[in-house]
Amino acid sequence: MPNLKDLRRRVRAVQSTRQITKAMKMVSSAKLRRAKERVVAARPYSDKMTRIFADLNLRAPDYKHRLLATGGAEAEPAKRQKVLLILVTGDKGLCGGFNTNLIKAGREFLRQHEKDEVELVLVGRKGVDFFRRRPVTIRRQYLNVTASGLVSLNDARKIADETIADFAGEEDFDKVFLIYSVFKSALSSHPVTEQLLPVGRSGEAAPTEALVNYVYEQSPDEIFGRLLPNLILTTIYRALLESVASETGSRMTAMEAATKNADDVISKLTLTMNRVRQAAITRDIIEVVSGAEAL
Question: What's the predicted TM-score (pTM) here?
Fold first, then answer.
């Protein structure tokens, strides 16, 4: 039977852990509210930019740019391609299956592209810690981008500029993909894989807007030269915001579950401790009664 002193020590330890998880849940709840507001505020801008880009594609279907897909049927489907994958994970743990699901999505991507030459750009310490022990090529890593719960536009611009330089530079990558977690609610978020570069020509544009005869004073080179980098920047910035909100929601849910589990453990330990104490008292009473009868 467990020792009463050991049981009391375990109860105190679980109570201390419960205080920590409860505090982390409250902090995550406050951060989640702000992160959700930023995501909701960023989505209309990103969606509108995508619609504008789709409209421009309808007006200049033959325009060629290094960041644009060529369109039409793909040539040489069996050709070994050079692919760059940007994986956005968290810098901290204690957030349920958030990082695990993203890393699993990254490993699935590598499995599907095992015939291609894939290099990784890792955003977040958890992704770096995992893949640096694996036989993969890590091109760059960005740490503490989302650790504070705030996403800086300068960090997103740095990632976007270096990604565009990789794709349009001498490295000659064929495609760039982005894996991040889309925020639905505190209880729901899931990883998605998007092709970042080259930018596809298919898009959703409202039919009524497509029929309006807009007059663009600038040349296609100037319009696409400004819009495409901003589109990449907006996509990466939104992915970072979505990732922060998803991580915060997962951490809040995980800490809430941990707090409930701690309550259950405390209840079970307290019940066991009371039984041990009662058994000790009963044993002492029996010993006293037996001694008195012996006299």
Answer: 0.84
